[in-house]
């Protein structure tokens, strides 16, 4: 009974309110008062702790406050990591495309057929082989298309340098600074030009490479009908990218210095390759 009486007295005192007041020191009048109990004080402290905890969690989750804490990787660091990973993936894909373009260009220069880039989205195992019976009309159409008649899609490439490629559009206007000399490693013609002069395609075709080289500046290669490739080197900027189709006389680059030491300033180099063999551009156009 004594223990229960003590507990009852303790809880009664814990809930008993005490009047706390503030009085004027001059006239001893009460200015303000409040009734508090130990239970009220503990409840207020607990509520204050809960509110502070919620506020801190909200600041951590919805503000960049932790980015300013030394040694802590906040949201900014995570966003930078995601951005750099995306850029790295893009660079890897671009490197694969450049490697494929370089291999295709090498095959074309050697007179071999270019290899197509595999498409991972296509599953060759799921494609069924369909056998279509041949009919006489197919043989006649094939002979017309693959032959040398008026309906031929791929006519024979010229057997001599000057047959089939006469009157090509001159890419630039200038003075020849260095002529064609394969024995000296000069596979094209260096033409002295003014800065920011447009460089134009000599014939219609498809851009098979467009990029920048540390020693040759801006470089663009165009594949033309008849298995001819024209190359434009030492350019300051390019207006076309790989895969673009161009037409005769269309601007594909601009001249000017593209290297830090300006060794390519004031000239551009034009190369012509037919069936993988370099030829003298001056035999086909007048600069």
Characterise the protein shown here.
- The protein has 287 residues and is α+β, with helices and mostly antiparallel strands.
- It contains 4 helices and 13 strands.
- Strands 3, 4, 6, 7, 8, 10, 12 and 13 form an 8-stranded antiparallel β-sheet that branches.
- A hairpin with a 2-residue loop joins strand 12 and strand 13 (277-279).
- The longest helix is centred in the first third of the chain and has 35 residues, at 75-109.
- 17% of the residues are buried.
Give a brief outline of the structure:
With 287 residues, this protein is of the alpha+beta class.
| Through-space gap between termini | 120 Å
Strand composition percent: 15-25%
For the largest beta-sheet, the strand count, sense and barrel status come to:
8 strands, antiparallel
Question: If helices are DSSP runs of H or I spanning 4 or more residues, what is the number of helices?
Answer: 4
Helix content: 25-40%
> Which class best fits the helix and strand makeup?
alpha+beta
Q: Sketch the topology as an H/E string, one letter per element.
A: HEEHHHEEEEEEEEEEE
Rg from Cα = 41 Å
Strand tally is 13
Q: What's the shape?
A: elongated
Overall mean pLDDT stands at 78
Unreliable segments of 5+ consecutive residues: 120-127, 154-163
Defining traits:
single chain; 287 residues; alpha+beta; 8-stranded antiparallel β-sheet; 3-stranded antiparallel β-sheet; 4 helices
Record the SSE blueprint.
Layout: H1 2-15, E1 18-23, E2 30-36, H2 38-62, H3 75-109, H4 136-146, E3 175-178, E4 188-192, E5 198-200, E6 205-213, E7 217-224, E8 228-235, E9 237-238, E10 245-246, E11 251-254, E12 267-274, E13 277-279
Antiparallel strand pairs: 1-2, 3-4, 4-12, 5-11, 6-7, 6-10, 7-8, 8-12, 9-11, 12-13
């Amino acid at each position: 009974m004594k223990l229960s009486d003590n507990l009852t007295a303790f809880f009664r005192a814990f809930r008993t309110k005490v009047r706390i007041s503030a009085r004027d020191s001059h006239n001893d009048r009460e200015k303000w008062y409040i009734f508090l109990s130990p239970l009220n004080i503990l409840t207020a402290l607990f509520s204050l702790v809960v509110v502070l905890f919620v506020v801190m969690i909200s600041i951590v989750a919805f503000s960049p406050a932790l980015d300013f804490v030394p040694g802590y990787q906040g949201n900014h660091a995570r966003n930078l990591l995601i951005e750099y990973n995306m850029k790295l993936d893009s660079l890897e894909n671009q490197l694969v495309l450049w490697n494929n373009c370089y291999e295709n260009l090498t095959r074309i220069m050697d007179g071999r057929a270019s290899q197509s880039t595999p498409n991972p989205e296509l599953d060759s195992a799921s494609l069924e082989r369909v056998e279509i019976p041949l009919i006489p009309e197919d043989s006649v159409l094939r002979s017309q298309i693959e032959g040398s008649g008026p309906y031929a899609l791929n006519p024979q490439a010229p057997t001599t340098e000057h047959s089939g490629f006469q009157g090509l559009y001159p890419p630039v206007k200038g003075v020849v600074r260095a002529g064609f000399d394969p024995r000296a490693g000069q596979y094209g013609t260096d033409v002295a030009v003014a800065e920011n002069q447009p460089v134009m395609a000599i014939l219609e075709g498809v851009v098979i490479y467009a990029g920048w080289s540390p020693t040759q500046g801006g470089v663009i290669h165009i594949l033309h009908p008849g298995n001819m490739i024209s190359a434009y080197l030492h350019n300051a900027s390019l207006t076309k990218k790989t895969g673009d189709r161009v037409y005769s006389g269309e601007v594909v680059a601009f001249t000017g210095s593209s290297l830090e030491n300006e060794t390519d300033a004031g000239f551009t180099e034009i190369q012509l390759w037919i069936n993988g063999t370099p030829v003298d551009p001056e035999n086909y156009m007048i600069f």
